Amino acid sequence: MTTPTSDVLIIGGGVAGLTLALEIADHLSVTLVRPAQDDQGASRWAQGGIAAVLSPDDDLEAHINDTLIAGDGLCETEAVRFTVTHGPAAIQWLIDKGVPFTPETDPAARYPYHLTREGGHNARRIIHADDATGRAVVDTLLNNVAQHPNITQRNDLTIVGLLQDNQGACRGAYGCDAHLQWRSLTARYTVLATGGASGLYRHTTTPAPSSGEGMMMAAALGARLVNLEFQQFHPTCLYDPEGPAFLISEAVRGEGGHLLDEYGQRFMPALDKRAELAPRDVVARAIDAEIQRGTRGHVWLDIRHLGEKAIYHHFPTILAHCASRGIDITKQAIPVVPAAHYSCGGVATNLQGATDVTNLYAIGETAYTGLHGANRMASNSLLECLVFARSCANALKEQGDASPRVEFEPPAQAAAIALPKTVFNDVRHRMRAIMSQQVSIVRSTAGLSTALKHLKALLTRLEEMEGALADPEGKRLQQALQLALLTVLAAQQRHESRGLHFTTDWPQQQSLAVASSLTMKDLAAWAVE
User: According to the UniProt record, what class of enzyme is this (predicted)?
Assistant: First the structure.
């Protein structure tokens, strides 16, 4: 028998995981599993900033109302109010930790840090660190984590599953090290902070996005997955088929950037009174339509009219990166396309991050809290990470010894193997192509049926491949395919167009807004049909 490795096991080291670790480490022992690829994950690449009511000229009700409008009828009002209300304190916590937010230079301003505006917001309420907020927050929190004696970091493991006792409670997780040895990490409480599912798609806004593996780990223990069909596509990702993904921040449009068609004409003002500052689902569909009508495969995002001084001041990271790709954004418009960016659905939790599974919590993008509804409003993501990580920390501290440090013997694992990566590359490439073609910005009944058929064939091919599921990469790919199938099933159940889910067969909304909910039982039931 083994005793728990730590009081709290946190899987994932983005903003949510790091915040939770710091908030509880003075009270409980923490093991933080932070794979090397977390440095390329969504948190670090969040450019725009964090939405919160900070200026005396803003108010909580306005932020709440803007969020509810963007969520298109599917936000849970209690979750929205909880998040927005706790936002200012979360920002102050980051300031106290040393995050170098951009100061306001206007002496007449009523808040010491610069606040920008993004799509869906009716006020300037986005605090930021130039145009690299995620990097600034992650680096600051990492530095704090490294100095805390009660936090043990593990970056040598690929976690592939959760441990469960015969009472159904989560008892930790297991994974494989670089030497192909299975390792079990037991804990009184396990928290998933593993990110979203943008990696199911071909074009994404981060170099190494998650593919929903953490969601499927939770589902395997009995957790519910809610609103998987609402995958947000950021309207403006740099278009460069030969280069890596790079997000062009919403703040570029917030500061006055214009979207242009291939003839150099603006198209958003004719579609929505908010023009380029309409919610992301509206802008992404508009860009997609322009791309379909055009011949270039992209549209243009133009900020030349802002002037060199403003561009250098507000967007130094974007300026430098585009220059490295041969684009001078002070003299040239930026070619952009929509790309998979954020999962509005995920593991169902309460306001403290607790799932349906005893001792299992989920925070950040991997969780469904009810905040985003059918469409996430810009810069509410890092806000959610902070607020719910801090709420989860309070709940775990209050729990204290409610979950005793009982002994638990993890089940034996079959020997791990490493197959050539090329074995899995084709399956993953085909999965992403199917999702991008059939389960993307605009969907159809026929397309979803086609996706279901081909994804099932890919999953069968993988599971019948000798030794595939004994390879950690193969196991994670199986989880990605399972989540892709559940995403399609969720989309098929929604006979309407709402928020991020737009289908040509059901272009209108239903009168009643209802969240979707699926479990592993639903996947199993479909598989035998």
Answer: oxidoreductase
CA 12, chain centre distance (Å): 12
- What's the CA angle centered on 462, arms 456 and 468, to 5 degrees? 155
| Residues 6+ away with beta carbon under 8 Å from 372 | 71, 75, 230, 344, 380, 384
pLDDT, one tens digit per residue, over 168-186 is 999 999 999 888 888 899 9
The residue whose two tokens read 């709940």 is: 395
Considering 125, 188, 280, 390, which one is annotated as catalytic? 280
Residue 260 to residue 480: CA distance in whole angstroms: 35
Closest CA to 387 of 81, 83, 126: 83
237-340 adopts what CATH topology? Flavocytochrome C3; Chain A, domain 1 (3.90.700)
Question: If DSSP codes are grouped into helix, strand and coil, which group holds residue 382?
Answer: helix
Nearest CA-CA partner of 342 in 70, 137, 131: 70
Residue ranges of alpha helices (H) inside 71-212 are: 77-85, 87-97, 133-146
Q: Using CA atoms, how far apart are residues 13 and 33, in angstroms rounded to an integer?
A: 7
Contact 333, 315 (CB under 8 A): no
Amino acid (one-letter) located at 261 = D
Q: Which residue has the tokens 């409670």?
A: 169
What pLDDT, on a 0 to 100 scale, did the predictor assign at position 420? 82
Residues comprising the chain, all counted: 529
Locate the domains of the chain by residue range: 237-340, 422-527
Tell me the C-alpha distance between 515 and 142, whole Å.
36
**SS3 at position 449:** helix
Rounded-to-integer distance, Cα 521 and Cα 310, Å: 54
Q: Among 1.10.645.10, 1.20.58.100, 1.20.1250.20, 2.60.40.3500, what is the CATH number of 422-527? A: 1.20.58.100
280 in catalytic set = yes
pLDDT digits (tens, 9 = 90+) for 235-265: 999 998 878 878 898 889 988 999 999 999 9
pLDDT tens digits for 430-481? 999 999 999 999 999 999 999 999 999 999 999 999 888 889 999 999 999 9
Q: What is the pTM of this model?
A: 0.91
CA Rg value for the chain: 22
Between the CA of residue 309 and those of 256, 304, 316, what are the distances in Å?
14, 11, 11
Phi/psi for 249 (5° steps) reads: -50, 145
Kindly state the average pLDDT of the residues 192-219. Answer: 92
The residue type of 344 is C
Q: Are 105 and 114 in contact (CB under 8 A)?
A: yes
Provide mean pLDDT across the span 287-314: 93
